[in-house]
């Protein structure tokens, strides 16, 4: 397994549209996924943080996974978030991801108990791996949310415990020194920072690409940067991301999607998140429009 063996490039952490009852709106999700894959995204991260995965029940997550698998979308271009605080839930979700054919599972560490030994997290992953065949497992490092860091030592422990199964890591810590350290552990690891600003560095092979919330909105610019080395396009992508600095990211991205796709329901979020205001929505849309068309 190498850095280029599986997913790479511009990957949107796709938002999950909600229906009137606050459940995943599968039809609207599929429409958005087709749009993103047709307009600059090399792949999608389904049911990640931007997708509000941990706010859904296991059955709601499984329902959306099955809807994606039963569609015309190319699962070879998709990883799905399957981490959970309960090992049994993570096992159920990851086994389903393998069964229906996703390209990989993005796995949060068990996040309720803090300060647990690495051996405990390794046991969590052994249970997941045993139930999911040969499905590539990607570690999801987001300590600001989970309270748990995939330290370099823990990554090495997991790779040793599960040879050939740990395919990579998504890093949402914002610490590029950390991401570079993880990428240097092994050529087997495909490391994806969460900020598209790294795409030029990724072109050189330092990273496999990026997995970004704002790629829901700027994927065309990101694709020109990663695939063509277009520095001006990357500047546009980074300015779009900066529109959300200091603001709630998931409600903001969903509000912008609502404006861009002219569908009010796209701005709905699950509690405890709160939807952006109409004024914020208009400001995001104006900021994105100011960068022009990406193609």
Can you walk through the features of this model?
It is a single chain. With 295 residues, this protein is α/β, with parallel strands linked by helices. The chain is built from twelve helices and eight strands. It is 44% helix and 12% strand. The protein has an eight-stranded parallel sheet. Strand 4, helix 4 (118-130) and strand 5 (137-141) form a beta-alpha-beta unit.
What share of the residues does DSSP label as strand, in percent? Answer: 5-15%
Distance between the termini: 34 Å
Number of strands: 8
What is the CATH homologous superfamily assignment? Aldolase class I
Task: Give a quick precis of the structure.
By secondary structure, this protein is α/β, with parallel strands linked by helices. Helices cover 44% and strands 12% of the residues.
Topology:
Elements: E1 9-13, H1 26-38, E2 43-46, H2 58-69, E3 78-81, H3 87-100, E4 104-107, H4 118-130, E5 137-141, H5 143-146, H6 152-161, E6 166-171, H7 176-183, E7 190-193, H8 199-203, E8 209-212, H9 215-228, H10 231-242, H11 249-260, H12 278-289
Parallel strand pairs: 1-2, 1-8, 2-3, 3-4, 4-5, 5-6, 6-7
Throw out a few tags for this protein.
295 residues, alpha/beta, TIM Barrel, eight-stranded parallel β-sheet, 12 helices, 8 strands, globular, disordered N terminus
């Amino acid at each position: 397994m190498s850095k280029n063996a599986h997913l790479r490039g511009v990957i949107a952490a796709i938002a999950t549209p909600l229906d009137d009852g606050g459940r995943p709106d599968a039809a609207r999700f599929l429409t958005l996924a087709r749009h993103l894959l047709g307009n600059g995204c090399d792949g999608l991260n389904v049911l990640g943080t931007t997708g509000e995965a941990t706010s859904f029940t296991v059955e709601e997550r499984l329902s959306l996974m099955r809807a994606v698998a039963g569609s015309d979308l190319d699962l070879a271009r998709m990883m799905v978030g399957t981490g959970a605080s309960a090992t049994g839930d993570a096992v159920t979700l990851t086994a389903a991801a393998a069964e229906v054919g996703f390209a990989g599972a993005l796995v949060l560490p068990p996040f309720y108990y803090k300060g647990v030994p690495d051996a405990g997290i390794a046991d969590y992953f052994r249970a997941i791996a045993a139930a999911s065949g040969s499905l590539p497992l990607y570690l999801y490092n987001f300590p600001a949310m989970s309270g748990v860091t995939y330290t370099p030592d823990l990554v090495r422990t997991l790779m040793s415990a599960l040879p050939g199964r740990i395919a990579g890591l998504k890093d949402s810590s914002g610490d590029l020194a950390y991401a570079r350290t993880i990428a240097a552990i092994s050529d087997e690891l495909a490391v994806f920072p969460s900020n598209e600003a790294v795409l030029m560095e990724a072109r050189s092979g330092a990273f496999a690409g990026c997995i970004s919330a704002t790629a829901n909105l700027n994927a065309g610019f990101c694709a020109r940067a990663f695939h063509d080395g277009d520095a001006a396009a990357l500047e546009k992508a980074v300015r779009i991301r900066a529109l959300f600095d200091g603001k709630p990211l998931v409600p903001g991205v969903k509000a912008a999607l609502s404006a861009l796709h002219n569908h009010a329901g796209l701005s709905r979020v699950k509690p405890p998140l709160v939807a952006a205001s109409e004024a914020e929505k208009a400001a995001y849309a104006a900021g994105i429009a100011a960068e022009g068309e990406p193609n």
